[in-house]
Specification:
The chain is mainly beta. It has one helix and 15 strands; from the N terminus they run ββββαβββββββββββ.
């Protein structure tokens, strides 16, 4: 696995070694030993999968402590634009984002540490999206930001009139109006 740094420290792109021949391909999608050596020590406790169609935007979601989550995300089939936003007040990269195209063809994964909001837009006809979390889902600890906050400047690569969102995701606050954010100086692990 190759680890590729992004402009925001801690948000990492992971690229597996792929072994292919006339039968197809094989790759190791996760090795705890290699992840701990190259990324960080964490224990993933929950795997999730979603299926969505073109134009769906999910996000920007996070969980507040003590249920804050790191995520390791990937696409099995189709393509998404995956986005992580730094929401740690006091961080040198506060309010900045990283956007990475993930697909069933490139097999890339993104590691999103605690302290970030996460979302994705579906670029293909449909997508199967999987992610690991290092903390269990806790509905009372949910937090989110507006996907279309102009201060974030995210190009979701979906025309706004074609964006498909849940009712809940249409009502999230902008970053400047958020009533709760992480503190950069707090140890989230």
């Amino acid at each position: 696995m190759e680890v590729i740094e992004t402009p925001i420290p801690g948000v990492l792109v992971l690229e597996p070694r792929i072994f292919g021949d006339s039968r197809g391909y094989f790759f190791e999608s996760f090795s705890r030993r290699e992840f701990v050596q190259k990324v960080m020590e964490t224990e993933f406790v929950q795997d999730n999968e979603s299926r969505s169609s073109f134009g769906v935007i999910r996000g920007l979601h996070f969980q507040k402590p003590p249920f804050a989550q790191s995520k390791l995300v990937r696409v099995v089939e189709g393509a998404v634009l995956d986005v992580a936003v730094d929401i740690r007040r006091g961080s040198p990269t506060f309010g900045r984002h990283v956007a990475v195209e993930l697909s069933g063809e490139n097999h890339r994964q993104v590691f999103i540490p605690r302290g970030f909001a996460h979302g994705f837009s579906v670029l293909s006809e449909s997508v199967v999206f999987q992610y690991k979390c290092d903390n269990f889902y806790a509905p009372d600890s949910e937090g989110a930001l507006a996907w279309n906050d102009p201060d974030l400047g995210i190009d979701w690569r979906i025309p706004p009139e074609k964006a498909i969102l849940s009712d809940k995701d249409r009502r999230h606050p902008r970053l400047k109006d958020a009533d709760w954010l992480f503190d950069y100086n707090e140890n989230l692990y």
